[in-house]
TrEMBL record:
InterPro entries: CDP-alcohol_PTase-I, CDP-diaglyc--ser_O-PTrfase, CDP-OH_P_trans, CDP-OH_PTrfase_TM_dom, CDP_ALCOHOL_P_TRANSF_CS. It comes from Sphaerotilus uruguayifluvii. Its EC number is 2.7.8.8. Residues 1-20 are annotated as: Disordered. It comes from the Bacteria. This is CDP-diacylglycerol--serine O-phosphatidyltransferase. Belongs to the CDP-alcohol phosphatidyltransferase class-I family.
Length: 280
């Protein structure tokens, strides 16, 4: 007996009447905030190219421009309600190039190459520190106190490294590999910036500053004076500002420790039991 059955005509009509499954709608990419991110990425790429050609002053300027653009993309995304997961990932990758790989390569070309293996080890410590810091930032973003960064933020670390280069180049130190004290200063600065990025030392984030609030008139005057001071001698003033900021975290840590206050910026415990020791 034949077990095959011919489908009923009505069943075929029912199948034809059913609407075809809709294809998932493709998500677009917000162009405005990602333009700032791409511009910041270009700043890091430009800095590497300039360092390869011996233009270390221009390389430092490229990194500082990338810092300004990087500080704008997130704010633009929030102001225009165009935040997205794509933008967050793009921002992290851009930061790794502009504030991780670029400063390490620039410093290596500027001074560390003369130290041989010690030089590229210091550059790698900085580069890997930036990668670890960015990865930790992305995974801990929901549990960290918004008022503080956990460790030195990578743009500030890049400003320390490239700021030293910018200041010394502006002062006329060109043949750096022949100046022993300057080579070791570059070595120490690179290690300090790289290792401080992966510490648990709290650095003020300025994220609780509300630009929509009214402020006294003197605040506007102070801002105008600050801009004037920076334009008077940008390399020295900017480097000095980031040196102070790069040390401020340890001051905050010491003050909190001496007063018996908690020094961790982790607001709540994470779900990963293996990571508990990293936040204390």
């Amino acid at each position: 007996m034949n077990q095959n059955t011919t489908p009923d005509r009505g069943d075929l009509d029912d199948d034809l009447d059913e609407p075809a499954p809709l294809r998932p709608r493709r998500k677009g990419i917000y162009i405005l905030p990602n333009l700032f991110t791409l511009a910041a990425l270009f700043g890091g790429f430009y800095a590497i190219v300039m360092a390869m050609n011996g233009r270390f002053d221009q390389a430092a300027i490229g990194v500082f421009c990338a810092m300004v653009l990087d500080s704008l993309d997130g704010r633009v995304a929030r102001m225009t309600n165009t935040t997205s997961a794509f933008g967050e990932q793009m921002d992290s990758l851009s930061d790794m190039v502009s504030f991780g790989a670029a400063p390490a390569l620039i410093m290596y070309e500027w001074a560390l190459k003369g130290l041989g293996k010690l030089g590229w080890i210091a550059a790698f410590v900085y580069c890997s520190g930036a990668a670890l810091r960015l990865a930790r930032f992305n995974t801990n973003i929901g549990v960290v106190d918004k008022r503080y960064f956990q460790g030195l933020p990578s743009p500030a670390a890049a400003a320390l490294v490239t700021g030293l280069i910018w200041v010394m180049d502006d002062m006329g130190f060109r043949g750096v590999r022949d100046i022993e004290w300057l080579i070791w200063l570059a070595f120490a600065t690179t290690l300090y910036a790289g290792l401080t990025m992966v510490t648990n030392v709290p650095f003020y984030s300025f994220k609780d500053v509300n630009f929509k609030r009214t402020v006294p008139f003197i605040v506007i005057v102070a801002i105008a004076l600050g801009i004037a001071v920076i334009t008077y001698h940008p390399p020295l003033v900017l480097f000095g500002v980031f040196v102070v900021y790069g040390l401020s975290g340890y001051v905050v840590y010491g003050v909190r420790k001496s007063r018996g206050r908690p020094v961790s910026v982790i607001a709540t415990s994470t779900d990963e039991p293996d990571e508990r020791g990293l936040h204390r």
